[in-house]
Amino acid sequence: MDAHTLFVVWLIAGILLGLGHAASLWLTTRLRDLVWLPVTGLLRFVLLGGVLAGAVLSDGILPAAVGWALGFSTAAATLVVATVTPQRAR
Fold first, then answer.
1. Inter-residue contact 58 to 1 (CB < 8 Å)
2. Which of 51, 52, 65, 84 gives 20 to 30 Å between its CA and that of 17?
3. Host H or E run for residue 89
4. Dihedrals φ, ψ of 79, to 5°?
């Protein structure tokens, strides 16, 4: 793969990882079953660490980290606004 393609692949992987990370944290705060809390935390840790370790090994850590930051901040802001904003009655 050429450098541009690798950059785009790691950027998209980072964005997807950031979106999933924020959504997972948001869902975990609403999880009532305490048995699954450690499992979701471990799953997030392994997934994030695995993707970032793969990015380091293929010299794609910068686009992966930037993509993660973009995805995480976008999802977090969207979920906060959706949670805090009252829904109008129809």
1. no
2. 84
3. none
4. -70, -35
Render pLDDT for 65-85 as a digit per residue (tens, 0 to 9).
Answer: 999 999 999 999 998 888 776
DSSP secondary structure string, 14-41?
Answer: HHHHHHHHHHHHHHHHT---TTHHHHHH
Residues 6+ apart with CB under 8 A from 62: none
**In the 8-state DSSP scheme, what is residue 88?**
P
The answer for residues whose C-beta is within 8 angstroms of residue 46's C-beta and 6 or more apart is none
Angstrom distance (rounded) from CA 87 to CA 59: 45
AA identity, residue 39: V
